[in-house]
Amino acid sequence: MRYVLDTRSGRIGEVMERSEGAVVLRPVGGGREWDCPPEDVGEASADEVLRERVRRLNRDAVERGSVP
User: Fold this and answer.
1) N or C: lower Cβ tally within 10 Å for the chain?
2) 33 in helix, strand or coil?
3) Radius of gyration from C-alpha coordinates of the chain
4) Which residues contact 8 (CB under 8 A, 6 or more apart)?
């Protein structure tokens, strides 16, 4: 897996597909994919990816009511 930064929005995404006009990204942990122009794709550090995974786990726990 390769994670990148969408520099337009600051979102981290997993690269699902590349074409000449767009890079298709999926949120860390799954979800709705989005297109990002290749010129707006930047490097995502391991720390950024880890932070996003933790955010996703916390958000999912809150939605399930698992957080006191």
Assistant:
1) C
2) coil
3) 13
4) 36, 40
